[in-house]
Amino acid sequence: MASRGNFNSRLGFILASAGSAVGLGNIWKFPFEVGAGGGAAFLVIYLFFAFVLCFPVMTAELAIGRHTQSSPVGAFRKLGFSKWSGIGYLGLASGLLILSFYNVVAAWSFGYFFEMVVGNFEIGSHFSEYVSNWLKIGIYGIIFMSATAFIVSRGISHGIERAAKIMMPLLLSLIFGLIIYSLTLPNAMVGIQYYLLPDFSKVTGAVVYSALGQAFFSLSLGMGALITFGSYVKKETNLVSSAAIITFSDVCIAFLAGLMMFPLVAYLTKGDLAAINSISGEESFIFETLPAVFQSLGPVLGIVVGSIFFLLLSFAALTSTISLLEVPTAFLVDEKKIKRSKATWIVAGIIFLIGIPSMLGSGASEFFANFVKLPGSDSSLSFMSFVGVVGGSTFLSLGGFLISVFVAFIWRRKNFMDEVRVENETAVNGFLRQYVNFAIAYICPIILGIISLVTI
Ligand code: PFF
Description:
By secondary structure, this protein is mostly helical. It is built from 21 helices and two strands. It is found in: Membrane.
């Protein structure tokens, strides 16, 4: 059998996984969820889920992948439990659904980069026209998906690892540059206060649920992306500490995105808390509001800061779309023995087609804009929101639940621990490993089980 490829270095693996985690979820979704969920109150709940619940599930995914050297569907069969391959298929379905709408939002961001370069700040007030221009968004979408497919088709070390090694440092530099700049703006501290002072009165069941969904989505968990990445990791790599570093990096970048965003909103609203409150909780916030912030910086600075922001967002999206495309690609390579380059372009094409209703539902088509009527109310969900709720949150928490049950009670914790134990383990590593060992059986299945049940 031809070699499946491997990450060349631990750093490359960590950067690629952190790249998968850091994406639109951190820079587009996280700040508005924080805005709607009571600032730091949301942050605290989010951190709890990320470290207490997601970190053990991440370690489990990586361990399954590395032990079996296989993508999610084959992994369960290789462990001797073919009946559990359903988890792999569920992951595959989530991956296809997520990438189908994710590519559309990535296309918006990529298009906004060009709008900022030519100084078209008015675009923020014409956002709905912009997203209903299906031809334009379609072209950006094709370009974005092709860039993703190009990188994935080049394989693990030459494609995914190399791209992460270039894009991740760039992304961090852009974020730090923008944070420093936004902190110098008038009223920056009002924004920071809004962000960091908790308002627990806003915390409802729905907020807690969305913090969990956000943590799973942001850490790319529950759909086998990390089983797939784990399958390219060398035996001597320490998975527990790697998972801790990946979780920590993702959470840090989400936190930094907030530090960058809230001063900008406070600047625009001249420090008016009520206005910050109403603007920052909006889903379309970065597309509708931020261009006005950039405009107010004056033509030259506005173009520089605005272009950097949307470039940053596009890079963050690209390191995530790569990992989303890798899951079905690895499935075709491992299970159907299709050549990687061919497999990549086939799946990319199919996913682009699945994404067309999401693209049309943002304005061009009434039918896809009001795709699902919500029972007992006048409102409805667009195709994109529907796919987001199903693939991007329900399937992921269900996937996380099934993975933890599988590892704890079917594959067994002893085998799991044998896979992740390292020689000369440090005390901290030992503690984290023991925590993972406990949580995967007693914390993750219970909390994720309850949540999955409530959702379904
Ligand atoms: N973690 C990515 C983000 O926060 O934008 C989204 C994502 C990527 C979800 C890869 C799932 C996945 F497998």
